[in-house]
Design brief:
heterodimer, A: 373 residues, alpha/beta, Rossmann fold, four-stranded parallel sheet, 14 helices, B: 348 residues, Nucleotidyltransferase, domain 5, 3 domains, five-stranded mixed sheet, 23% strand, binds iron/sulfur cluster
Chain lengths: 373, 348
Amino acid sequence: MRATFPHLLHLDVALGILYPSLGIEIVPPPPITQKTIEIGVKLAPQNACFPLKVTLGNFIEAIEQGADTIFMVGGVGPCRFGYYGQIQRIILEDLGYRVRFVLLDHPRYGVWSFLSALRAMTGGRLFLPEIVRVARLSFAVLRFTEELETHRRALRCQVRDPQELDRVIDGTIEALRQVKTFGELEALKTDALEKLNALPRNGRKDFLKVGIVGEVYIAQETRVNFNVEKLLGDLGVYVHNSVSTVEYVLHTFRPLTRSREKLEAWELAKPYLRRFVGGEGIDSVGSAIRYAREGFDGVVHLYPFTCMPEIVAKGVLQAVSRDLDLPVLHLAIDEHSGEAGLVTRVEAFVDVLERRKQEKKRGLKRNGSLSRS
Amino acid sequence: MDLFLGVDVGSVTTKFVLMDREKRILASCYLRTSGDPIAALKEGLRYIEHRMPQGGVIRGVGTTGSARHLAGVIVGADIVKNEITAHAVAAITRVPDVRTVFEIGGQDSKLIIIRNGVVEDFAMNTVCAAGTGSFLEHQAVRLNVPIEEFGKLALQARQSVRIAGRCTVFAESDMIHKQQLGFGKAEIVKGLCEALVRNFINNLASGREIEDPIVFQGGVAANQGMVQAFRDFFGGKKRIIVPPEHGVMGAWGAAILAMEYAPQKTAFQGFSVVERNFKSRSFICTDCPNACEIVVLKEDDRVKALWGSRCGKWTPETATVRCEEEDENLPSLSSYPGCSTERCAMHG
Ligand code: SF4
Ligand code: SF4
């Protein structure tokens, strides 16, 4: 068996530890490129969600590299995500690919059934405690990759040399791939945090703060969303992303355990949205409200072009934006999105936030024309 | 006298504004980009140079538009700004209590919401041609009406005919249909203007409050038929202002931003730029499946600036080498069998 899986930011680092430790040989898909997107777009139904198309591209490229088994998670709730795996399996079958499709789609069975299923597949060679250990280790690695990205978003506008920041973080993520024990992970953590602390700062303190909300795939996958985070960071903005793969994995396998943040976001969204609308619709609304409370200057809402839950969220966010005086930039992404238009929007949005901040600082009643210098 | 230069390079038109410290426009021009922004930039610079007042010195340069970075490198910009901010700044300068800006240009359109002199919200359409000036140009050609006459003709219509204009393709067939039904050109032109207004509002205004005064700017604002169609759309209840400088608002905004930015010493390269030998070209990077199209700006044989790399691996030096390699490997034209140099289009 040569197994593969879809890319989602640094998920491959964690899975690259998990599967081989269980005795499963893996063939990770090549990094997402324009070609991945083109393949997916060509083979998927035209009106399928954009994340389905990109992950389908991942599978095809991995199969070309020799993968014969695909691990795919399903989703929960009244949303198309639950069917991604099914549709992709049918598409691959129709194309004549002979691959095994393992759908880890029923959250009801939980993480235990997932692990014992894996164990069965590897011929039951491993003891359960060992399986638990590697599962915990890979999860801890995933958490740390996410922590590193949080630092990257926060620090980009504060360090003197953003390229050096990238080198530290990308270097650490590469090194994480080799981690075998918790001890090694801890050592890497300490080392990386020291390096990050030691990066020379530019001394800026009055940067704008922008929060990212949206659909789990598009809001995180920088190779698909034109790296909006970096764009913002390079414009001198402090960025925080409310979407997290760790959360998503937890939620998929243990639908009843939700982190404090998630419950809080849902609570905050209540005055606007009481019903589950599928995907991350409620989370987008709740997180935006939280950003407003925490004094963020604005929110960027990232979602696939035809995503139903997020279109609901968009409508609600317009009301939130009015009520809380919080600027929100909605960016719908799909294969037709052009980089130039997106960059223009993001730049203009940052200008809006900058001007608002200046006005507030001046304490004027905001009646002066901005051109009356 | 301290002067400021604003340059707006779009894919269809290129605009220049020369402005003094009172934000007065001393000279401006509106040119076709015709796929060659470098030539358009040079032409604009020549035009402005001839209109420089005695004792005038350029103290700052701002660029905007889709080729703002290219323009910034060639002309030497102190500030490079997106079109939305540039257009808003100019509209606020012209009409300080403006609350909404409609901007319809050749290849895109924008809606900007302004409150208390600050941009509050905006929307931009870059994908759908049915919401831009090219929609009208396209149909004008079909109807055999010069685009300049379009507006006047629309005003002559005695009744209006509804044209389904959700998309350029539908509009075209519906227009032909209405022609066959015997509607006159004036009515059809009026119907097209109204279709464009509907598209603009549907695409951009969704859920946004349109409050007046509205400043209508961009090349399409010259079209009186369009102005009338917007007035009719709001039932004559909203104040719509078309400023006299509507065609060059982006460039004007860029000039104002350059003045506000107040550089110590301008990066302006001087009018002699027109003598320099700039060329832009592109190559496809084959180092990974992203296959980025790297666009380079060359001065003589040296790469000055480059855009389009997703990973940031290219530097002017490596790109220069790459261009040279490509040039060497290019078969010379005369070696193509059957190439008659004089008549070959590739030589022209
Ligand atoms: S959340 Fe959006 S993108 Fe994801 S499956 Fe649902 S509709 Fe598709
Ligand atoms: S520029 Fe970088 S990302 Fe683009 S094709 Fe070349 S190697 Fe790939």
